[in-house]
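Our consortium's second objective concerns turning raw sequence data into structural hypotheses that experimental partners can test. To show how far this objective has progressed, the report includes one record in full. It was chosen at random from the queue rather than selected for favorable results. The single chain below, 120 residues long, was entered without modification.
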Amino acid sequence: MNIQIHTNRKPMQKVNLSQFFPTLTEPWAPITVAHCNGSDVMVARGQGSYPWHRHEHTDDFFLVLQGTLVIEMRETSVTLGPGEMFVVPKGVEHRPVAESDTFFVLIEPPNTKDTGTTLV
């Protein structure tokens, strides 16, 4: 496994993801904290709802660290708490929703775009 940390740390050091929570001031604006096998490992803050979207060429991985994240899909929804993860298959329209501050991990190929114009 090839891991590179994007902070001022040397590769192969552990990372405490909660240290990034105070820097996540903008909801739904993830920051990359590492790379793993060519993908970005990102942490993000959710509050409110992100627009409905889909990723045409990649799955969407969510791992909740703190709070509650609901992944709404057109025919079902999944509620995630701390330590729970869910993978939205590529092409499935979805909308993440967090009623209160929620912190989570995303893993995606670099520059993954959704069906809108926003990088996610």
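The partners drew two points from this record. The chain has a mean pLDDT of 88. The radius of gyration is 14 Å. Both points have been shared with the crystallography group to help prioritize constructs.
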